[in-house]
Amino acid sequence: MKEPTVEVFVCMNVDCKSRGAQATLSRLQQQLGEREMSQVEPQPIICFAACNLGPNIVIPSRRCWLTGVTAERVPEVVDYLQHGADVASLKEKNDPVLEQMIFEMIDAGLLDKGDSD
Amino acid sequence: MPEILQAPRVGVADPWLGAHRSSGGYHAWSQLSQEGAPERLIDIVERSGLTGKGGAGYPTHRKMRLMRAQSAEKKFLVVNGSEHEPGSLKDRSLLEGQPHNVLEGALLSALAVGATDVLVAINEAATRALTHFREALVEAQGPNGIDFKGIRVAVHTVPDIYIVGEETALLEVLEGRQALPRKKPPFPIQQGVFGFPTLVHNVETVAHLPFIAREGAEIYRALGRHGRGVTLCTFGPEFVCAGVHEIPLGTPLRDVLHDWGGGLRGGLRIKAIQPGGPSSGFLPASLLHLPLDAETLQNHGSALGCAVIRAYSTNDCMVRELGRILHFFAHGSCGQCPRCRMETSMLDTILRQVLSGRGNLRLLEQIDKVIDLAQGEGICGLIAMPAAPARTCLKHFREEFIAHIEHRCPACSAQHAGSSTLQASGK
Hints:
With 117 residues, chain A is α+β, with helices and mostly antiparallel strands. Chain A contains 4 helices and 4 strands.
């Protein structure tokens, strides 16, 4: 039976890009390929104003928002996706008000594919 | 009713020095510049009730008094003719049709506040306004011109980019930098152009000054219905009499729309209006008994702003109209403040999703939350601009949003998706 798809949103807005979001996305795609995790689909995300914490990643199905995910820290994210490894250090700067809004938006269906440009 | 600014006659009336003089022009300047107490103009302006015509509506005399109190080797008066609010034509109409009136008003204000330099910023896209004002300046400085009393006047062209209309972004442009709003404080009156005290007036604001100085505050106030003078309004292309008209403040909106605007083309019925440009709240037809007055409009979730009046007919889809406005703000944001970028792009995304038939009620509920999260944040006022149109549109036309969610919007099925868009980088 095919595993359910896990969407991983990577913010590609100006600030996150300037903090290395493109390298984060590339590393994520590479690692997912190497570990044959085809059920995980990286997607662009619209800016959630957490720019000073970027690069930002949101994993909606796990209600998980990760900040400061530079390319070097991508393996920790993939470990989390693969084995549920601890990513607390990538959450410690999360703004709770913003976090609530991010998931309310996602729950409301904002982040449809093709509407995140 | 006399029209003190004569804006509707742009292109017909003679804009040059002789005509301005023969209608009483530069009389106030001669008096004020010769009598030795120019600050008395500030008292007259206070009694006139004049407020800034650029959108914020701040009492003009207060800014002038604050500026007067500044002491510095140089003091600047910036006349903001960048006019980036979509649809607004009043400032370029004045610069084009009454350049000497604008110049006289600028000189009067400069003298009253002790400014040494006047910088007139004109949108590069307003080519006739630029040409006419420059020619008027040459005329005034010529052999039969007027004595500027040592006040230097220069014209600057500014790019046709929405954010340049924000006064501190304009100051950045005048200093040769990118149009990015500055953090306040310090306020421009404390540290403006090149660090010197700077008073920023809208073009229309200074254009009111010669009449006020010449005729007095009481006569000026009496031009309005409730003693509040007059204002220029730009009527959108949907009106029979589109363009710039001078309206007595306090006139009921219904009279404004029909007596000056001539109603909608094709005899269409008005469903809603925005009296102050895209950042003003929507008012449904049931509120058209309200007077054209900044305070009243604000009490009903709208604004007078720079008085760009847009009307929407019973054939228009209000969701689509709001979508155009929110898209405009998303693209008009300079991107400097994360919260502004988040707010404007998120609201734009929500509306696009609703318009594309993939909306839901839960998504609509997020609009208020996104606006609340942005409240009080951001360097400049742009972050607050989507709030009034979004909230009032949802309040007065919620049924139309529901119709979109349920794929049954009659206006959109009739019109399809062919409406025009607002442009943040030009008109």
